[in-house]
Amino acid sequence: MKEETGSTPDRGLRCQAMKVAFADGGLNSVQRPRLVIPTGSTVARAAGCDHFGMSHSILISAPFVAVIPAGAQLATIADNDPEGWVIALKPGILGQVSQEAFDAVPKWSRSWDPFLREAADTLAALHHADLIDAACDDAFADVISVHIALRYGHCAGAAEPVMPLTRQMLTRIRAFVHEHIAETILVEQLAVLVHMGASNFARAFKTATGTAPHRYVTLERVKFARTMLCEETIPLIDVGARAGFQTQQHFTEVFHRYSGVTPRAFRLAHRNAGG
Fold first, then answer.
1. Closest CA to 3 of 67, 63, 65, 73
2. 3-state class of 214 per DSSP?
3. Do 76 and 18 contact (CB within 8 A), yes or no?
4. Residue 9: what pLDDT?
5. Closest by Cα among 82, 1, 2 to 36
6. Which of 24, 116, 182, 195 is the most buried (most CB within 10 A)?
7. How far is CA 81 from CA 19, 58, 113, 170, in A?
8. Across-strand partners of 67?
């Protein structure tokens, strides 16, 4: 692991390319929350203690981002040329409201945020074209601070009114789930399809369908698995994987919970009914 060392002035260094931050050590010494946005194959590790003295350690890699608290140490894993961004967040950008919001921003956790990924891509393009300076870096840091405070702070719900999901929106969501059924599907991914925040989307989806998004995805996985189980040529272990279950044990437990029988028993029952 390659550690950040040293110190740098605050001005113009609140938004740094990861390879620059790791070269001169600028942002490990900044006593503010930091946003970590790895890109490419870079994996970052953040470690430290919370206010209760409990130790935390998380790994961050694309497409996820993470907010880490002041004092946390940041490093990359087996990467001498890290890609991505480290941004020192400015809690005072919205005054007292923002400071209170940042106190409520989840630390030591990863999130999937399309806006922040797009911001990272824009920063990379500007730097590559040599069209950005310290003041512009600071402006990006300020905008990102506002976004995080409003979306993840305690006042996030008030910033985005709840709106109903239309039939077209639900069709878009169903199509995405079916297309990506073998992959990990996050609520944040579904929310961005209809331009909503995750919490408001979850409420709107449950209102429209009577089912929480996570449960809906699980039920679709089980339905897809039932269809495959009717095909005798597909091994059970492949059925679970193709339906998006991480392990065979998890597949068996979830399938039994929603179907009343194990996958093997379901296949035998279908075989006997057909015979």
1. 73
2. helix
3. yes
4. 39
5. 82
6. 116
7. 6, 20, 24, 42
8. 35, 109
Q: Which two tokens stand for residue 164?
A: 């109903």
- What is the SS3 assignment for 39? coil
Please give the Cα distance from 213 to 216 (Å, whole number): 5
- What is the residue extent of each domain of the chain? 2-159, 162-275
pLDDT tens by residue, 44-101: 888 888 766 778 888 888 878 888 887 788 888 876 778 888 887 766 665 555 566 5
How many residues belong to the chain? 275
CATH for the stretch 162-275: 1.10.10.60
The pLDDT tens digits for 201-245 are 898 999 999 999 999 999 999 999 999 999 888 999 999 999 999
Give 35's strand partners. Answer: 67, 87
Q: Looking at domain 2-159, which of 2.60.120, 2.60.40, 2.10.260, 1.10.1760 is its CATH number?
A: 2.60.120
From the number of C-beta atoms within 10 Å of its C-beta (0-12, 13-18, 19+), residue 65 rates as buried
